[in-house]
Amino acid sequence: MRVVIAEDNALLREGLVLLLSSAGHEVVAVAGSGPEVLPALLEHRPDVAVLDVRMPPGFRDEGLRAALAARKEIPDLPVLVLSQYVEETYAAELLGGGASGVGYLLKDRVGRVDEFLDALERVASGGTALDPEVVTELLTRRRDDPLDTLTPREREVLHLMAEGRDNATIAKTLVVSDRAVSKHIGNVFAKLSLPPSDSGHRRVLAVLAYLNKG
């Protein structure tokens, strides 16, 4: 894959370059500040962009803004956002308007190489990858809605769905049968008034779209 990296921390940036190169990917450009990001993305049109949320000069949301601007110019540009903390507003904005090919991971997740590379490849192929802590924040900060009607097991299934896991992975993770997973997913969609789908990716998008409402 051809990758553009936007990260102001030089050590992490070079670490990402080394990690991705060692995994067989091509880093076509790196950016160390917000103003550099959009031109790099538009010039190279990578298979996936790995972006920090907060970058110079303001250290606010420069990376995210560049990602959103790039996706307007390059529809469906896969973007994997890295952040030091769970920032709900940024996550919601990134996921708004359709969540195809997007990911939001905490930077600590980069140290788990296999998980990070798996998330990167999932996003690049048009899937979704959300850090479990991000999912938890999105779920727990919402009150007085149908999410409150989910059972603990259904909530666990929803977490894994929002991370982009398929039925087999969910079953293995929760140590239950595939049939039980299908039943829980059906209950989740029914309680959230979302139509079930045979597409694993589409069902993730439906859940994320619901989480992003309001």
From TrEMBL:
Residues 143-214 form the HTH luxR-type domain. Residues 2-122 form the Response regulatory domain. It comes from the Bacteria. SMART domains: HTH_LUXR (SM00421), REC (SM00448). This is Response regulator transcription factor. Keywords: DNA-binding, Phosphoprotein, Transcription, Transcription regulation. The keyword DNA-binding applies. Pfam families: GerE, Response_reg. InterPro entries: CheY-like_superfamily, NreC/VraR/RcsB-like_REC, Sig_transdc_resp-reg_C-effctor, Sig_transdc_resp-reg_receiver, Tscrpt_reg_LuxR_C, WalR-like. The modification 4-aspartylphosphate is found at residue 52. The keyword Secreted does not apply.
